[in-house]
Amino acid sequence: MEMKRPGGELASRPLHFIWIADSSGSMGDDGKIQSLNTAIREAVPHMKKVAEDNPNAQVLVRAVKFSSGAQWHISQPTPVADFAWADLTADGETDMGKGLELVAEQLKMPPMSDRALPPVLVLVSDGQPTDDFEGGLKALMEQPWGKKAVRIAISIGQDADPEVLQKFIGNSELKPLAANSPEALVKHIKWASTAVLKSASSPAAGAEVPAGTDTANVPIPIPTAAPATGTAAQTGTQNAGASTGTPAGTQGDPNDQNTIDDVW
């Protein structure tokens, strides 16, 4: 049942969108950190448009960065209409597990509300974790909102660990997206910021997460290998956190970047 404020106005529900960004020293190579900053900054206006079109959700954005340790890069859950990206700099190790632990702390209730829509967590990394990734993932998945979250992963370059990123996603039918060039990174960041956000903020997303369930049932559009310019091409939908979804053979290979020159 939809909740309404006194007077009949539809009450919006918080949707927390969290970037989990690798800012380790290797991200300083070949312009990767600059490309990530540019891609997220360019995606923000598109996120604002999605939020405007889905008034039932109050989209709140923030970001964690991890290198030698982890910290909140943008700590306050910021309404997307007021959100501005602050550029990351690259230095240090790849303490991904600590980044996940920070997110896990914020997905507890409180501070999370039981009225929230499933959070969207987007992990971006170019390397292997240098700390206890498994412990960080365990902390995240021990939180009900961690399990229910829509978890997306983007690998940058050839040195990222696809198995680690797949464990973060926790869904065999939704693969990490490989970004081997600035153009591919922009495409994947925009997809996560628009198509995924739109699905997670739809009325159906909230209706399909009954109390007591452990996973979200958000239909996530699957990107094709080479979506049309400026659009998030879809060949089917995938339920986040579910083991069923897109039939075999319809997804395409999101890691196939044959149309884009590899830079990383």
Structure, described:
The chain has 264 residues and is an alpha/beta fold. It has one domain: von Willebrand factor, type A domain (Rossmann fold, 3-Layer(aba) Sandwich). The chain contains 7 helices and 8 strands; from the N terminus they run βαββαβααβαβααββ. Helix 1 runs parallel beside helix 6. It is globular, with a radius of gyration of 17 Å. The protein starts with 12 loop residues before the first strand and ends in a 25-residue tail after the last strand.
Brief overview, please?
By secondary structure, this protein is of the alpha/beta class. The chain is 30% helix and 20% strand.
Number of strands: 8
CATH class: Alpha Beta
Tell me the count of domains. 1
- The total count of helices amounts to 7
Helical content (DSSP H or I, runs of 4+): 25-40%
Give me the strand/helix succession: EHEEHEHHEHEHHEE
Largest sheet: 6 strands, mixed
The gross shape turns out to be globular
Indicate the CATH topology: Rossmann fold
Distance between the termini: 48 Å
User: What structural class do you assign from the helix and strand content?
Assistant: alpha/beta
Strands, helices and their partners?
Elements: E1 13-22, H1 32-53, E2 57-67, E3 69-79, H2 96-106, E4 120-125, H3 133-141, H4 144-148, E5 150-156, H5 162-169, E6 177-179, H6 182-200, H7 203-207, E7 219-221, E8 237-239
Parallel strand pairs: 1-2, 1-4, 4-5, 5-6
Antiparallel strand pairs: 2-3, 7-8
Helix pairs in contact: 1-6, 2-3
